[in-house]
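call fold(seq) -> tokens
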Amino acid sequence: MSAFENISRKRLTIASLVVAGVFLFFINILSTLEIQTAQLDLTENKLYTLSQGSKEVIKTIDEPITFRLYYSPTFGEISPVHGNYFKRVRELLEHFAVVSDGKIDLKVINPISFSVEEDEAVKFGIQGVPLDQSGELGYFGMAAVNSTDDRKTVPFFNPQREQFLEYDLTRLIYELAEPKKKKIGLITSLLIESDPMLQYKPWPIMEQITQFFDVKPIEDAVLRIDDDIDVLLIIHPKFLKNNTLYAIDQFVMRGGRLLVFLDPQNETARMTPRAPPGAGSSELKKLFDAWGIEFDENKFVGDRTRAIRVQAPVKGRDVIADYLSWGIYDKRAMNAADIVTGQLTSISLASAGSIDLKENSGLKLIPLLQTSKISQRIDAELVRGEINPEAILKQFKSENKRFTIAARFSGKVQSAFPAGRPTPVDDKNKKNKNTDDKKLLQPEAHVNETQKILNMIVMADTDLLTARFWLQQQEFFGKKISTPFSNNADFLVNSLENLAGSQALISLRSRGLSVRPFHTIQDIKNNAEDKYRETEQKLTEKLKVLQNKLQGLGDKSQSKGKVILTSAQQKAFEKFRAEMLDVRKQLRDVQLALRKDIEQLDTKLKVINIWLMPIVIAVLAIILAIIRRRKYGQLKAQG
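ret:
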């Protein structure tokens, strides 16, 4: 018998445990020193993996950046949620520091009351949160400073923005490392830069734009758009003068890039006090007709699979119905292969139109956002007056076609002004012109065809830029905390960065949106509600028939004002009431079938999630045990 066989099983077990312990100890040391960035991320959106976009931004750092992370441990003891979030923030910042090869220096500072560290935190604008009734403040924020004393601050890390953490930090680095912003020219008929409804503050979407770009407003009376404009952004163009259209046309002919937001019905413009007739719709018909692009400002698209259920007052009663004008478009509606929409999760739209190529157009269209086939082009007049979601839903009839809401256009186009620059209206009214005026109005060399391939993105909706369709705002100790619930702003900024040639932040922007709708359940609901609606319409029609038949029947009592029915009429009434009860039973059956389908699907999901995997693991364990037992029996038989 060998020496190995002489060793008792007990001693062998103890030796194995000792070796395993030593092995784990050295593995732990090795992982701490050598593989700090190694991790296994099994989340769908890779929330815990540093994206390629972040790495590219970090590579652009030319000068050291110091991160000062201020955190009060007492705060974490009182609020475990913030304590856990601090670990997440610190780990991500440490990851940034490792990837930067020493260009990012992380300092974790624990300020206590009346200390120098607390004074420093207050100086940097870090927000203090009361911890108890004594007035002691806790801090959880960060200040980033580069070598030229440029400073960016996160006053408070809110756990509600955890899915945007990497983006927020990378954007902060980008703003400190990028010396010059791209210039965006802005033409809009909306009060996006200064809205009286917001006390003359800009819309939140403007804050998103100005974080990354230098925005130059362009007035409608412009004669020429400067060549230093990297991208021309046009939002809800309405009542533009001919010379402005010509300036846009020539900007494109010279190779300028264009991002356009149109709308058959902008709800914000419609609700603006003293809004002129037709202010809700927008178009660039003169330019689009010449370039071969089709957009009908009198039609919006309704997608039955993406409609949002609303409650709206209609003629004194509350109506609850799916509103075809409003829709949430998920990843299934987006072009996953395009860099603008590839990383987005959802976009919320209102009264969106559709765009297409005209017949014999020389352009190439690449869809970025499309409806499902269960969609219809609907008359925009239905959303320009009193809104009745139920009436819009009743007239719905699918065209069995996918409509394009947002698209990228490329190719060669001809000028919309083949005769050259039009005469500005102001020229006709001017009696005296000085030398500067003559020089300003002197026409430049007209360009009749694009000198470069057209590069343009068009979105057939403008309401998506309104805060209520993409942003949730709430107060937190006197500070407004904004949390996006949709990728509307990301679509805009991604498009600008793509057209301007900057791609670094696109791959990570809003990659952490965690909304994952149950599409199958929603489809089941839609199908059942369609059946319900048809049955309801039949019932309503029968009620109208009954009212018409009963109108004028019987003799009216002079004293009590009651309707006296004949025996035949009474039988007819009883017959209809029986039919009505039968229809109501059918409605209950439809709702019961709806609940049954959803409950069956819910049961299947529970079985898969709760029972299937443990059963699979148990079966595998049993199989392995049987195999080991057989091998042990074979070895024993051989011995």
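The CA atoms of residues 235 and 261 lie 5 Å apart.
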